[in-house]
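Example S7 (structure tokens).
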């Protein structure tokens, strides 16, 4: 099974640090964030990776790959211009097989049981499954409302008055069916949060799988510091 890691963002909220080092290569407990993600995928037998990167940081990611503990089956795809989450996924469409694939933001730490997520996805037979996590400040993220059957009823991007504390954690398990909802014939800027998930929700094809594990967004200095202080890495059963 393959995993796509979205690692091409500019990280403007972490300037000037990210002018030299892209967010996924920033360290938490002395290891790059992306290395924590890769470790966890490998523990769940997910061992083929496609990493979307900025043209400004090709050498940085090549060095990271070279320095990793062992050889990785990873392909770097350069994002020459901002494409958004959906545009990036579409860019690598031809590299995906017929089986489901994971997509993860590259600047977050997640401690979720991926086997549980895969079983959930197969059982519910949707086009997309979102890993959901409960947070105290949901208005900063994509808030998700589910019914009693775990179908996503609404996907609200950064609402002022969030009706739920469950958010999308930036980890998705997707079917190739999602490309039927792509409105263009080439990679252009589009977001799964706005251009895909609401459409799937209307057709009852979007599901949310709730987790109680750790989750850290490292997109600001405050959140990055929190991750450094609180992230726990010694759990072989979790994505870490």
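Recovered sequence:
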């Amino acid at each position: 099974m393959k995993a796509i890691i979205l690692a091409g963002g500019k990280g403007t909220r972490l300037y000037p640090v990210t002018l030299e080092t892209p967010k996924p290569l920033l360290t938490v407990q002395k290891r790059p964030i992306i290395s924590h993600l890769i470790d966890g995928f490998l523990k769940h037998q997910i061992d083929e990776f496609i990493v979307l990167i900025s043209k400004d940081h090709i050498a940085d990611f090549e060095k990271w790959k070279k320095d990793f503990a062992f050889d990785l089956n990873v392909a770097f795809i350069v994002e020459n211009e901002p494409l958004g989450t959906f545009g990036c996924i579409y860019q690598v469409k031809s590299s995906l097989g017929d089986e489901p694939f994971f997509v993860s933001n590259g600047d977050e730490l997640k401690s979720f049981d991926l086997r549980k997520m895969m079983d959930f996805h197969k059982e519910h037979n949707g086009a997309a499954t979102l890993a959901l996590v409960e947070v105290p400040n949901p208005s900063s993220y994509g808030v998700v409302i589910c019914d009693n059957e775990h179908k996503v009823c609404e996907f609200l991007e950064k609402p002022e008055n969030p009706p739920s504390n469950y958010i999308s954690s930036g980890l998705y398990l997707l079917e190739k069916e999602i490309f039927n909802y792509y409105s263009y014939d080439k990679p252009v800027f589009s977001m799964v949060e706005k251009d895909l998930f609401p459409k799937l929700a209307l057709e009852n094809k979007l599901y949310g799988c709730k987790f109680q594990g750790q989750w850290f967004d490292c997109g600001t200095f405050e959140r990055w510091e929190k991750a450094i202080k609180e992230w726990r890495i010694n759990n072989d059963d979790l994505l870490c």
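Notes on this example. Residues 2-230 form a domain with the Spore Coat Polysaccharide Biosynthesis Protein SpsA; Chain A fold (CATH 3.90.550.10).
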